[in-house]
Amino acid sequence: MGCTSCATGANGQPKGCKNNGTCGTDGCNKLTVFDWLSNMSLPGDQEPYKGVEVRFKNGRKHFYQNSEDLTLSIGDVVATEASPGHDIGIVTLTGELVRIQIKKKKQPSDLKTLPKIYRKATQKDIDIWQKCRDKELAVQKQSREIAMRLGLKMKISDVEYQGDGSKAIFYYTAEDRVDFRELIKEFARTFNTRIEMKQVGFRQEAARLGGIGSCGRELCCSTWLTDFRSVNTSAARYQQLSLNPQKLAGQCGKLKCCLNYELDTYLEALEEFPGTDVKLKTQKGLASCQKIDIFKRQMWFAYENDWMNWHQLNVDKVNEIVAMNKKGKSPASLEEFIEVVEVRNEELFNNVVGQDSLTRFDRPKRSRNKKRTKSKGKNRNRKRNRKPQKNG
């Protein structure tokens, strides 16, 4: 959902508010929270909560106290306390829901410890803030050139100016520890402002920059995901995914966070399955597991002296054989436990709309022979209809 300024412009071209996700209407912001308490009135003896959530560039949010009792609503541009000077942000949440968000993010609930909101931003504040935002891209490009000239193994992913322009925050990623003392001196001389360096992880960098994932949707970390849990390769093994780093890695270069979404369901389903290293003892010989299907609850086994022939068994039948082996009993063979399932003709694939034809949308070519035969027929009729000429 986007704001009205993000609609299409002339000739159907995308217009865009050119604020990179920081529009004033709060319609196309990242990591927004729906205020489901906005249409509910407080009890008569309770005062409204004075905590306010303010968002800055790329979804960075902080909590502030409304000590001046300003009338604030979502989308208001405010001047907040910063060190040094003040910063400019947009109000994203007010009221009792701010108290819940503070508790959820495990921050101190005492309002006196929170920084203050000075005032609603004036037009002069907004002009200075917008001027600083406009030069961030050029500063980022120049800062990368300086880092490369100094030979530092780091990547400056983003630059954020404070609302009053008194400080610039440089976000960078690096594999190892970087000594950037000389870099800060160079930045201070070049940009003539206070410099602050912040190292972020590769997941946080992808969340700040955003993008489209392999699923075709926006990245989870830049839209709704706020906590980054560790992802192991065992999550892919439990879900029987091929351990291909190109398919399992996201834009951050790490394992995709979505590998953890369905992991609990897979682990719960695998509790009914015996271990894949369990061998079934039969009178015909030992059988080892070759493949499992979690959704169909099926397992395939093969005898050790006949690896080419696989036998499909249900999980319940496999558990029954394992229980017999624990009691010292062995069935005659695995073939006794195979269930033959008859497939009905109605369940087979029926080509109703001609999906197997690759040329079903091509226009049929007209043969030239028909035109030739028609022209020949017309010429013959003309010769027959001609009247014989009289001599003399």
Protein described:
This protein has about 400 residues and is α+β, with helices and mostly antiparallel strands. It is built from eleven helices and twelve strands. The strands form three sheets. The protein has a five-stranded antiparallel β-sheet with strand order 2-1-4-3-5. Helix 3 packs across helix 4.
Write the layout of secondary structure elements.
Elements: E1 51-55, E2 61-65, E3 77-81, E4 86-94, H1 96-104, E5 117-120, H2 123-134, H3 136-149, E6 155-161, E7 167-173, H4 181-191, E8 194-199, H5 202-209, H6 220-223, H7 233-238, H8 245-248, H9 263-270, E9 280-282, E10 285-293, E11 298-303, E12 306-314, H10 315-326, H11 368-385
Parallel strand pairs: 7-8
Antiparallel strand pairs: 1-2, 1-4, 3-4, 3-5, 6-7, 9-10, 10-11, 11-12
**Sheet with most strands:** 5 strands, antiparallel
Strand content: 15-25%
What sort of overall outline do the alpha carbons produce when their principal axes are compared? extended
Record field, number of beta strands:
12
Average the pLDDT over all residues and give the rounded result: 82
User: Alpha-carbon distance between the termini?
Assistant: 94 Å
Structural classification: alpha+beta
| Number of separate structural domains | 5
Give the H and E element order. EEEEHEHHEEHEHHHHHEEEEHH
User: What is Rg?
Assistant: 35 Å
Unreliable residue runs: none
Strands side by side in the biggest sheet:
2-1-4-3-5
Total helices: the number is 11
Summarize the amount of helix as a percent range: 25-40%
